[in-house]
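Hello again,

I reread your note about wanting to compare the complex against the isolated chains. To keep things tidy I'm splitting this into two emails, and this first one only covers the full assembly. Below are the input lines as submitted, including protein chains and any nucleic acid or small-molecule components. They are followed by the predicted structure of everything together. The single-chain runs will come separately.
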Amino acid sequence: MIRAGIIGGSGYTGGELLRLLLFHPHVEVTQITSRGQVGRYVHTVHPNLRGVTTLQFIHPDAVQPCDVLFLCLPHGESAAQMAHYAALAPRIVDLSADFRLNSPELYATWYGGQHPAPDWLARFVYGLPELNREAIRGATHVSGVGCNATALNLALYPLASAGLLGQASVELKVGSSEGGNSPNAGSHHPARSGAVRTYSATRHRHMAEVQMMLGADVAVRFAVTAIEMVRGVHLLAHVDLTAAQAERDIWRLYRGAYRDEPFVRLVASKSGLHRVPEPRIVAGTNYCDIGFELDADGEHLVVIAALDNLGKGAAGSAVQCMNLMHDFDETAGLTFPGIYP
Amino acid sequence: MITNQTANCPECDATLNIPADAMQNELIACADCGAELEIISLDPIELDLAPEVEEDWGE
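Full-complex prediction:
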């Protein structure tokens, strides 16, 4: 049993991480911090955990050494305090964007300004197990992943790696929890409820992670639209293939890429009500569902993917990485299949 | 000993187990793509897409 701490545990990602770790067979969560909630039981902030744990939030200055720390801090804060936290735990999973990109120049381009701890960048590996498993296995410092980037990377990787991705134009529909738990004018109920609000129609920051994993010159454009949903990312990509394919070729390609992946499911069914991926089906899980439909010409492929931004897009992938870092069963603590309807 | 045979789905190329007691014209479903398939021949095993009534998606 290893001892884990969560830094910045009052947010949505911290809460999801705690929910997963409390049922992990090899982990005991010994501490969770929040500057604003010191002394309060965690169930006062994460009500689904009432009766599951008696943990109380502590101040970050009170953190004791442990085996692994999960940092769920706002972007920029992890990097500024990395030396402090690294002295408290031999292994760190940082769920912020601070250590996702592998160079300070890339960070400056997409996040603006100087990286607060450039010397630490090379010590982190990118935490997407499906595309970076061997680097994560045994690593001591692993970054989190962007939720939208994860949907894009997993949906398009088989095509990119096979040289079939000509041009992809992608629309991502996302839930309100992507915006975190700090309210603002845009998240105020009268403004947010019923919204179909496009933001970052160009130059979304997660493009950096897509270029890092699929290639700097990958021909992908995407826009993000906030819709009436709390959890979830729905990706729909119109892809121009570089060569005409048959549907069974696409099946072979995606099956070859993900046949052995425990958390990627291919959903392109000819029957039933849910024939292609839907965010609702994967809410609360660590699954990314990927489906497709090939146009009659064999050159226009529509790829559809769904994941939970707090699950596979954040806390779920972080736990999956922790499992690999500690040589645990990769699926430990992550097998919840979701609820339906 | 009677053993199951395998065949590939004509739609997605998944490998399907065909029960040893399968009959010609029997319908089976592909677990991967959900296609409903008809066993049109037993020796050798041949599968084809079964006619299917499309669901009304509101069009």
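For quick reference: The two ends of chain B are 51 Å apart (CA to CA).

B.
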